[in-house]
Amino acid sequence: MQPKRVSDSSVVMAHQMLPEDANPMGNVHGGVIMKLIDTAGGVVAMRHCRGNAVTASIDRLDFLCPSYVGELLFLRASINYVGKTSMEIGVRVEAENITTGEVRHSASAYLTYVALDRAGRPTTIPPIVLESEEEERRYREAEERRRIRLGQSCAEGPKS
Predict the structure, then answer these.
(1) The 86-96 sheet, strands edge to edge
(2) Is the CB of residue 143 less than 8 Å from the CB of residue 81?
(3) Rounded Cα gap, residues 113 and 58, in angstroms
């Protein structure tokens, strides 16, 4: 299987926040942002494996500041780690005030996707080629998150 560069599957998606995306005060609902994050991450996963991929987990989702009606959200998503059938995708959300041009880091998330074959079973995926110190750092950090995630089973409950 031919390895792929991180940049081969990375995406930047833009979405303008409208009144139906927000509460009466004009703050965008977290669930709307979560859906956009999952969409961006899913696109990266499917581009990497060139097939179907499903969300297996969200390890972390941090809302750093609110987003408002009228703002343009940019979702920057790229692959951090690849296992045999799963991959971690990082998504950074930036909110841009279209009038002033101010850009804020609004949210960040780490999601794990599993590639599926046509029968719906996990299937192997291409490894990634790390081309920068930043990509190598993100890979190491994702490896650690995976180690922690896999070290905790339902039967055992949370580890201290």
Answers:
(1) 11-16, 72-82, 86-96, 103-116, 52-63
(2) yes
(3) 9
Answer whether 81's CB lies under 8 Å from 110's CB.
no
Asked whether residue 158 is assigned to any structural domain, the reply reads no
- The reported pTM is 0.91
* Contact by Cβ (8 Å): 17, 68: yes
Query: Which residue, 5, 157, 1, 13, is CA-closest to 93?
Result: 13
Q: 74-105 burial string, b = 16+ CB within 10 Å, else e?
A: bbebbbbbbbebbbbbbbbbbbbeeeeeeeee
Residues in the chain: 160
Please indicate, yes or no, if residue 107 is contained in any of the structural domains: yes
Q: Domains in the chain: how many in total?
A: 1
State which H helix or E strand residue 107 sits in.
strand 103-116
Using one digit for the tens of pLDDT, what is the confidence trace for 20-61?
A: 999 999 899 999 999 999 999 999 999 999 999 999 999 889
The two structure tokens encoding residue 119: 């029968």
Q: What secondary structure does DSSP assign to 93-105, as a single string?
A: EEEE-TTT--EEE
CATH assignment of the domain containing 126? 3.10.129.10
Lookup result for tokens 């089973």: 153
> In this structure, is residue 155 part of a structural domain?
no
Question: What domain range is 97 assigned to?
Answer: 4-150
